[in-house]
Design a protein that fits this description.
Length: 202
């Protein structure tokens, strides 16, 4: 999906000023209410439609969306718009993204996300079989192997640029799990601390 958030930097600057890595805020779109969690390190929006079990995730590459909106989310957004079906003019989710982008340029009222809130929301956004939570480091110093491009791409997408750079420079892979744990929250809440500790072990 080729969509770019124009107000992404201004929004992140607000978070940096308050030194918050993961935030929750409310967002209204047409007749629907949403709870949104944004993670600085992951550079991702987890979007939960209130009153439903629908949660979807938008991973960003800088300010650009890297994935398309899945069908379940598309159907729920279409309901919000409440427009009659027209095969010649189907609902376009860009309408939702533009509204969210405009919301980001305002003085968004956000709060720091708790670990429980993060896990209960993100678990609904990702199928159980997909492993997105950090589990462990896998150093390759003594096994004559190298971190794969596939693992680096996943690390960059799930954990962010800083972790991917660290893994590439130190030949370290990351093991993921589908079960949330304390460490999987800490790696996105305090990446500097986690990386500094790991560097001491190399």
């Amino acid at each position: 999906m080729n969509f770019q958030f124009k107000n992404w930097k201004a929004f992140r600057d607000q978070l940096k000023l308050q030194d918050i890595k993961i935030v929750t805020f409310d967002f209204a779109y047409e007749k629907c209410e949403f709870k949104i969690i944004y993670s600085m390190e992951q550079n991702a929006f987890y979007i939960a439609k209130r009153g439903t079990q629908t949660v979807f995730v938008l991973f960003l590459d800088w300010y650009k969306i890297t994935d398309s909106i899945n069908k379940d989310a598309y159907d729920q957004l279409k309901v919000c718009k409440d427009q009659p079906f027209d095969p010649k003019k189907p609902y376009n989710p860009f309408d939702f993204l533009l509204a969210l982008d405009n919301h980001l340029k305002e003085n968004v009222k956000f709060k720091k996300t708790t670990k429980t809130e993060y896990f209960t929301t993100t678990k609904k956004a990702i199928p159980d079989e997909e492993k997105i939570y950090f589990q462990r480091w896998i150093p390759h110093l003594n096994d004559n192997k190298n971190v794969t491009d596939k693992n680096l791409e996943k690390v960059k997408k799930i954990l962010g640029f800083h972790y991917a750079t660290f893994c590439k420079e130190n030949n370290v892979s990351v093991g993921f799990t589908n079960i949330p744990n304390d460490l999987s929250f800490e790696v996105i809440e305090d990446p500097k601390k986690v990386l500094d500790e790991q560097k001491k072990k190399l």
